[in-house]
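To the wet lab folks,

You asked to see what we're planning to order before we commit. Fair enough. Below is the target structure as tokens, and below that is the sequence we designed to fit it. If anything looks off to you, flag it before the synthesis order goes out.
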């Protein structure tokens, strides 16, 4: 493809991605109030459990509209993530080899459900975090929280945890690309667990041990799952290498996708 063809292809992919996000945002506008009601539940819990005035506050004339639009846009981006992620992959696919296409497609298909699973995990723990952090306020004070600040806090927590759940997929991708081995992944398990615990401790309040473990345990499981997949891949690769060393003529029998690079 010429440079002009690449630019036309890029414009096509951007138009499709933008159109999908726009449609998702329109749909998100109609369910934004439902999500906002779900976001208010921890506030109601604070008012009941801590016996204090707790409410969301809109500090500007257009704050309510801006917040609803932000929620709608966020819902549109998350809901249409398979579409615009596919457009990114489809733009680079013509320049990839058959083997690279297989690896990147596997990454694409596994990253999306893991990202959504991580977002769900962040959504599950956020009410406990809100309740704990507001409990430090004196009992005679009110908890009047700016609505935009509150939504930004929830959004960042959910997205950060979602991205963290995708990181093990990068380990597998790097292993298949020959950058790291399963042995090195397993050898670093102590450091990995320490980093996971530190991450969950930062993402959740230090005093909220339950929320920290709710995030840390699935991340540790995903880490060792990635190590297991890498170990199976390295074992299969080693068997092929041993077979080729015994009989080099076997290389001509193997399909191109399974031949080892010289």
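Sequence we intend to order:
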């Amino acid at each position: 493809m010429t440079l002009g063809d690449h630019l036309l292809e890029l414009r096509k992919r951007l138009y499709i991605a933008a159109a999908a996000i726009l449609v998702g945002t329109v749909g998100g506008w109609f369910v934004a109030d439902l999500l906002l009601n779900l976001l208010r539940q921890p506030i109601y819990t604070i008012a009941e459990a801590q016996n204090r005035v707790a409410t969301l506050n809109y500090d500007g004339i257009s704050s309510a509209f801006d917040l609803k639009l932000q929620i709608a846009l966020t819902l549109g981006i998350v809901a249409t993530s398979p579409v615009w992620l596919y457009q990114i992959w489809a733009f680079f696919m013509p320049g990839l080899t058959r083997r690279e296409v297989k690896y990147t497609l596997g990454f694409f298909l596994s990253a999306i459900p893991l990202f959504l699973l991580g977002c769900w995990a962040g959504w599950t723990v956020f009410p406990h975090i809100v309740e704990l952090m507001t409990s430090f306020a004196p009992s005679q004070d009110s908890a009047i929280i700016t609505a935009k600040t509150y939504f930004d806090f929830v959004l960042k927590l959910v997205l950060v945890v979602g991205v963290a759940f995708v990181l093990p997929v990068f380990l597998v991708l790097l292993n298949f690309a020959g950058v790291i081995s399963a042995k090195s992944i397993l050898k670093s398990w102590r450091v990995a667990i320490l980093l996971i615990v530190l991450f969950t401790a930062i993402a959740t309040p230090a005093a909220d041990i339950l929320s920290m473990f709710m995030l840390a345990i699935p991340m540790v499981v995903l880490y060792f799952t990635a190590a297991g997949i890498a170990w199976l891949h390295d074992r299969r690769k080693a068997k092929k290498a041993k077979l080729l060393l015994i009989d080099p003529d076997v290389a001509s029998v193997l399909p191109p996708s399974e031949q080892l690079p010289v």
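Structural context that might help your review: Confidence is low (pLDDT under 50) at residues 250-254. Helices lie at 3-49, 63-79, 81-92, 98-134, 147-176, 182-187, 189-203, 209-246.

Thanks,
Computational group
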